[in-house]
Amino acid sequence: MEAAIADFNNVLSTVSDPVEKLRTFIGHYVGYMEKERALAEVISVELRQSNKFMKEYVPVKFGEFLKILSGIIIEGKDKGVFRQEIRPGIAKRAIFGALDEMALYWVLTPKPKYAPPKIAETLTLMFMEGLTLPRPAGDV
């Protein structure tokens, strides 16, 4: 996990725009899971099967990993590009939950219908723009 944190921090260090940082984070995560399929399998499948592990696991490094996401959200709010009412603690878990679910899909599906780049693109669009179409002015 320590290597993954260093890798993500390194990749994101070259990106200054919070929108691009989030796009880069999502794309890098999906690409990482594709490259490290065995690791994705262990994280997404094996560890979930172990009740004992899950009860005893203290997620210090995982918390550091999620902190990268909340940092992007906070930076975006500070720069006025993300909505102020978005709570970083909720957003980071929602984003990671979607990424984790797609990693599980990728690992468990013999012939995945969606390629990793399409997964990253769709998740980025969903989190950046939501699911609704822009409403006409005055429409509530």
Give the total of domains: 1
Secondary-structure-based class equals mainly alpha
Q: Provide the low-confidence segments as ranges.
A: none
- What is the overall number of helices? 7
Q: Helix fraction?
A: over 70%
Radius of gyration: 16 Å
The CATH architecture would be Orthogonal Bundle
Main sheet specs? none
Question: What is the CATH superfamily classification?
Answer: Tetracycline Repressor, domain 2
Name the quaternary structure: single chain
Keywords for this entry:
140 residues, mainly alpha, 7 helices, globular
Overview of the molecule:
With 140 residues, the protein is mostly helical. It has a single domain, classed as Tetracycline Repressor, domain 2. It is 73% helix and 0% strand. It has seven helices and no strands. The longest helix has 21 residues. The radius of gyration is 16 Å and the shape is globular.
SSE order and pairing:
Elements lengths: L1 H11 L5 H18 L1 H13 L1 H6 L3 H19 L9 H21 L7 H14 L11
Concise account of the structure shown:
With 140 residues, the chain is mostly helical.
